[in-house]
Amino acid sequence: MKIEEKEKNEISVYVDNIDDLWYLKNVIRSGDLIFGTVFRKEERSEDMQRAKKTTRKRMRLGIRVEKVEFQEFSDRLRIMGKIEHGPEDVLGAYQTINLSIGDEISIIKENWSREERELLKEAVENSQRPKVFFLGLEHGLATIAALRAYGIQEIASIRKRGDEDDEFFGEVLAALKSIRSDEYPLIILGPGFYKDNFVKFAGKELKNYSVLQASHGDMRGIHEVLKSSLHKLLKDSRIAMEEQLVDKLLEEIKKEGMYAYGPSHVEKYLNMGAVEILLVTDRNYRKYEKLLKLAQETNAKVHIISTSHEKGKILESLGGVAALLRFR
User: Fold this and answer.
1) Which tens digit of pLDDT belongs to each residue from 292-315?
2) Residue 235 pLDDT
3) 42 and 20 share a domain?
4) Which residues fall within 8 angstroms of residue 47, CB to CB, at 6 or more apart?
5) 119 and 46 within one domain
6) Do 95 and 33 contact (CB within 8 A), yes or no?
7) What's the whole-number mean pLDDT along residues 59-65?
8) 290: domain CATH number?
């Protein structure tokens, strides 16, 4: 993501990758004013045939946001609202801005919160990190996935059709090369020596990779490697950090230690200034704005946890909000 601060609480955002869409889903809220480019349908009469012809006209509009939708692992963010700025004949009409990689929008808020600015800053830093790809291999099965800010995205699953490993390995290598360029690190994982046979087959066509042992060569193995954080690239990832924080929370719950969960319980400790780290799921980020404000007032750190992975779902089951405490 690239951002540019402008006057009157306006920030211009350029979308670099799919992760940026997840960040923007958590930054853009109902009531914000968004300027973006759309193609809007226009109907005009044909004098000769007395029929209406529909065309699509490119225009830049400003909409007052009412709803934001982002499907996990999709490549588009849908921002819906009523047009407030644009040609007179479309003012007051409803419009959807479909935001994808390579698009630019401007966001105007009455007030930018600390959490929203930190999310944009993190998105910029995330764009500068190398994207990590995974190739899981076990006999007759290959799984290709990518590490995103919000979780692991499965990109392809390839099954062996014939008897020859070389034919299968060739298909896997071709798929990998079509998805990933050599600048992005690749982690090859799986049980036994099957993955090593693939590496030997690929030879010099395979670059910028490392090989790790895992119990499985599918998504289970990828999550196993991510959880163990054996690789430096994974230790620095957002999802690894999120899982570590939720694990710390579960550890404190197990030993009846320094924790709180659920909105009323957490609010009690925030009012006491006892919260060191506040954890909120992305599904409840807007719902608990009062708690976020209290966290800011008491210098508690805030982490928004994605519900696209297992630990995020656990936090959601605890009410979507929890805290690690400074004291009881």
Assistant:
1) 889 989 999 999 998 888 889 999
2) 67
3) yes
4) none
5) yes
6) no
7) 94
8) 3.30.1330.30
